[in-house]
Design a protein that fits this description.
The chain is mainly β. The protein has a single domain, classed as Jelly Rolls (Sandwich), CATH 2.60.120.590. Helices cover 13% and strands 34% of the residues. The chain has a seven-stranded antiparallel beta sheet with strand order 3-4-14-11-16-9-8.
Length: 222
Amino acid sequence: MNTHRPLPVDLGVAQPDLFADDLPSVDESFRTAHRIALDETSWIEHVPGWLSGSEHLLREVIAGAGWEQRERWMINRVVTEPRLTAEFPDLGDAPVPMLHKVAAVLSEHYGVPYDGLWINLYRDHNDSTGWHGDWPTCKRDVCTVPVLSLGATRRFLIKPREGGRSTVLTPASGDLIVMGGRCQRDWRHCVPKQTGTAGARVSVNFSSRFQATREPRGKSGA
């Protein structure tokens, strides 16, 4: 179940300037990448400053995505998700051409054909997402899921599925977070609410139809 609501206008984000000199670009060398082994089969990678000109891209995405505020059942009642969402199962439908370039670079680097987008807009410090794994887009045991952060810095937490200590990252605008290995099976992640004020943040999640299909039964390793 979901409902469509107009984009909130008071986000403190100006319209994109197509003639600005800070147009976005990515670091195809991934030189700042730092990988953390969460366990023997799961890892998370943080690439600080991977995309420059992130404010321009933030404005483009907010202006062009076409946002929904979704509702879902929780136990015995309907709740409104505390964030806005835009979904593009076909990357070709995404309204921001730069995201096509970003997807191509990620596909080349991680060896996964990224062909879809799931975008969240956290309007302020009150918006959040609870503990979850990306099961709808990761039906295989091993997946690689890149998430590009734009806008305000927010905490990103990841912890074992069965409970335990959280690993905390604070991606800034233009930073890339990549979850790999068995992260979506064995770990859960979230973006919690925060007590201090925060501006708008967008997370761009890159998905792949290849990873969204289950592995054939009886498949054996080489």
